[in-house]
Each structure stands twice: as C-alpha cells, then as structure tokens.
C-alpha cells in the first residue's frame, strides 16, 4: 500500500519536564559517585529519553547508542591527544624565550586544536545519526571529516581578521558540507542556503558588538587618561594615590566627565548585543531549517524570539532565587553546626562571623556541601529549564511540507562507526 503523505507533517516533542528532571538529577548523582565516569552512560540515558519523545507524524525516533561506545571512543581520543600535548610542551620548551618561536608554536598548536575540534564535531554527528532510527531506518552521514575540518580552517582566518563579519560564510559552508552528506536510509537530504542571506541578519549583532568594543575601549582609555593626569602608577606603591600638587586637574575633570558616557555606551551596547545575538540565532535557525529538503519535502520552523527569550529570562530569575535560598540555607546549617544558640538578636549576623565559630573540618564540610549542592541544583536547572525547554521549542516549531512516499525509503548499506564520539567527548563537544 502506498504511504504517500501530502502537505504538512509536524514534528512534536512530548517529554515531561519532571521526568526529564529525574533523569538529569539521577545522572548527576551517579556521575559524582563514579567521579565522572558515568557521564557517558548519563548522556546516553538523556538521549534515549529525548529521542523517544520526538515524533514525526505518528512515528517516534529511537536512539540506539550505548554508553560503553562513548566511553571507549573517549579513551581512544585521549591516546591521540596526550602525544599532541606532549609535542606542544616540547616545542614550547625548545622555542625558549624567542617571541617569534613561541608565537609560531602556539599558532601551530591552536590550528591543530581547531582542526581536531571540527573533525570531532563531524564524527560525533555521524555517530549520532547512525544511532538514530525513524520507522526502523537509521540516518547516515557520509563525506570526509577531514575535508569538513579543512573547510573550517580555510574560513577561520577570514572570520578572525574581519572580527567575525565573515562568520555567516563559514557557517553556510560547513552546513552545506554536512547536510548534503546526510541521509535517511538510502535517500539524501539537500541544503541550498546562501551566506549573503544570513549576512543581512548577522550585520545587526556585529554592529552592536562594535558598540561594546567602542564602550570598552573608551572606559580603558579614559581610565588611563585619569591615571596619567593624576600621576598614578599602580606598579609603584608610593605613587598609587593621586598627588594634588602635580596632577593635571583639568584633564582629570574632563576624563571624569566623559567616563559615565563611556560606561553607558558599554552597558547599552552590551544589552543590545545580547538581544541582537538572540534575535540573529532565531533568524539563523529559521533560515537554515527552511533551506533543508528531503526528497522534495521542505523543512520550516516557526520558532520566535519571544519564546526563546522567556526560556532564558525565567531560568535566570529561578537560578537567582535558588542561589539566594541556598546561601540562606548554608548560613542556617553553619549556625546550627557552630552550636551558637538561635535568638532574635542574631538578625543581620554575617556569614564570616558564623564560620568563625566552626573548626576547620566543619568549615570544609559546610563549604564543600554548599558548593556540591549548588552545582547539582544549578546544573539540573540549566538542563531542565534551558536545554529541555529549548529542545521542546525547537522541535515543536519544525514542519515538513511536500509529498513523499516514505515506503520507498530503504535502509542504507553504509557501515556505521563502532565506537562513540571520541574527540568530541575529549573536547566536551558531545552533547546533542
């Protein structure tokens, strides 16, 4: 029977927030108990949860990766990275005090790292696709990870020298190489995005970044101007304070009058930059998604800036409240542990005064317990309130439009990688 689908197929995500929070929290506890080794199995558990709650039409995704695969891939990556680190240290020692030599060594080292990072990104995405099934058919990513990394390196100098202005061109070049090598079974995806389209959006946050740089430069310049006019030398203890008899009062006054403007430019520019970057990321995602197609069917996204902004604002508000509550809780624990009797007159007592009542061991356990608690809670909050909600927003915004007979899609014959993401885990890139 034909399974031709007409018009629109919506993506959906129905993972429960509290269920995901349970997965994240248990993962964090197990990682602490295993000194971080469980992270590979933790990542696999999260992916299985997320994949199983993503559906396209009436069919759900399935993740078949294993924690052991990620762990073994990571160990192999370390075998590669340790010699590179050793070579870098050896060359750095050999270069000695030569500035040119140190610059050359660091340039080669950073270039090598950038190459390996992009190589890792491509290989990690290949692994995830081959472990992703839809209707029993797995994804694949063909093409060369080396060529992908070389494309990134080719664009990197232009991005750096243009202060990021060329970033959309690098982004589209990498997307072109990645998406056009993606397959579902034996059928390919296609990408036809143009960098000039993204550039029209990117110029806005780039100009806002110039405002931030101008404000920062102004603050630094005026600060040095005041110090110079007041004959202040921060490296000389005897000249660390202004000398009223020798300082140029007019220059100090003029620089001081301009300082609020420089700080205002820095602050306003910073806020506008953050807003414009968020706006650009939304526009970028919608544009890139809209330029991807699969066998005549086109993707689209309707995600909006308001929803993305609310995710971050609500997280920051909640994290602030939780952080303050933890500080109060730590003070109460320290107070009880110190044996100091509770009485109304202690309102306003400082944390330092409470800690002074504890011996060194008790201080250590109070501080350690506080740090561990806040790390676990804030990590859980960020995964649940930012990552999980963002995943829901992004996935639910996607639609596939067109006509395609999915019964004609068959399993690809390409072999899938046996091990996990390796270098991506070593560089902490192996998320989703």
Question: Strands, helices and their partners?
Answer:
Layout (H helix, E strand, L loop, with lengths): L3 E2 L2 E6 L3 H17 L5 H14 L1 E3 L2 E5 L3 H29 L3 H32 L1 E3 L2 E5 L3 H17 L5 H13 L2 E3 L2 E5 L3 H35 L19 H42 L1 E3 L2 E5 L3 H34 L12 H6 L3 H37 L1 E4 L2 E2 L17 H4 L6
Antiparallel strand pairs: 1-12, 2-3, 2-11, 3-4, 4-5, 5-6, 6-7, 7-8, 8-9, 9-10, 10-11
Low-confidence stretches: none
Backbone shape = globular
What share of residues is helical?
55-70%
The CA-CA distance between the termini, in Å, is 36 Å
The strand count comes to 12
Helix and strand element order: EEHHEEHHEEHHEEHHEEHHHEEH
Secondary structure class reads alpha+beta
In a nutshell, what does this entry contain?
The protein has helices at residues 17-33, 39-52, 67-95, 99-130, 145-161, 167-179, 195-229, 249-290, 305-338, 351-356, 360-396, 423-426, and strands at 4-5, 8-13, 54-56, 59-63, 132-134, 137-141, 182-184, 187-191, 292-294, 297-301, 398-401, 404-405. The protein is of the alpha+beta class and 432 residues long.
């Amino acid at each position: 029977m034909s399974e031709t689908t007409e018009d629109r197929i919506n993506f959906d995500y129905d993972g429960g927030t509290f269920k995901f929070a349970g997965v994240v929290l248990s993962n964090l506890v197990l990682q602490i108990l295993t000194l971080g080794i469980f992270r590979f199995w933790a990542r696999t558990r999260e992916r299985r949860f997320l994949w199983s709650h993503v559906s396209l039409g009436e069919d759900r995704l399935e993740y078949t990766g294993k924690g052991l695969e990620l762990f073994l891939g990571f160990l192999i990556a370390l075998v590669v990275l340790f010699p590179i680190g050793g070579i870098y240290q050896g060359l750095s020692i050999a270069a000695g005090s030569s500035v040119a030599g140190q610059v050359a060594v660091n340039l080669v080292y950073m270039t090598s790292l950038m190459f390996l990072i992009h190589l890792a990104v491509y290989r990690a995405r290949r692994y995830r696709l081959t472990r992703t099934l839809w209707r029993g058919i797995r994804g694949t990513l063909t093409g060369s990870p080396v060529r992908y990394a070389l494309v990134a390196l080719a664009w990197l100098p232009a991005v750096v020298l243009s202060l990021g202005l060329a970033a959309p061109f690098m982004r589209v070049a990498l997307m072109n190489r990645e998406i056009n090598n993606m397959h579902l079974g034996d059928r390919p995806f296609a990408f036809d995005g143009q960098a000039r389209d993204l550039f029209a959006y990117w110029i806005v946050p780039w100009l806002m970044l110039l405002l931030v740089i101008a404000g920062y430069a102004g603050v630094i310049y005026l600060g040095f101007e005041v110090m110079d006019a007041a004959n202040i030398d921060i490296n000389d203890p005897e000249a660390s304070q202004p000398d009223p008899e020798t300082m140029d009062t007019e220059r100090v006054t003029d620089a001081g009058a301009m300082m609020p403007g420089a700080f205002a430019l820095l602050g306003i520019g910073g806020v506008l930059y953050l807003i414009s970057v968020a706006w650009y990321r939304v526009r970028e995602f919608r544009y890139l998604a809209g330029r991807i197609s699969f066998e005549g069917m086109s993707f689209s996204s309707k995600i909006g800036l308001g929803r993305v902004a609310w995710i971050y604002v609500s997280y920051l508000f909640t994290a602030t409240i939780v952080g303050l509550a933890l500080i109060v809780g730590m003070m109460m624990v320290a107070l009880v542990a110190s044996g100091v009797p509770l009485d109304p007159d202690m309102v306003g007592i400082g944390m330092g005064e409470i800690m002074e009542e504890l011996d060194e061991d008790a201080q250590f356990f109070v501080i350690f317990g506080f740090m561990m608690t806040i790390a676990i809670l804030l990590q859980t909050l960020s995964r649940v309130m930012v990552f999980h909600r963002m995943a829901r927003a992004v996935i639910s915004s996607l639609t596939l439009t067109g006509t395609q007979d999915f019964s004609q899609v068959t399993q690809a014959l390409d072999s899938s990688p046996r091990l996990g993401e390796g270098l991506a885990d070593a560089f902490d890139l192996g998320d989703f």
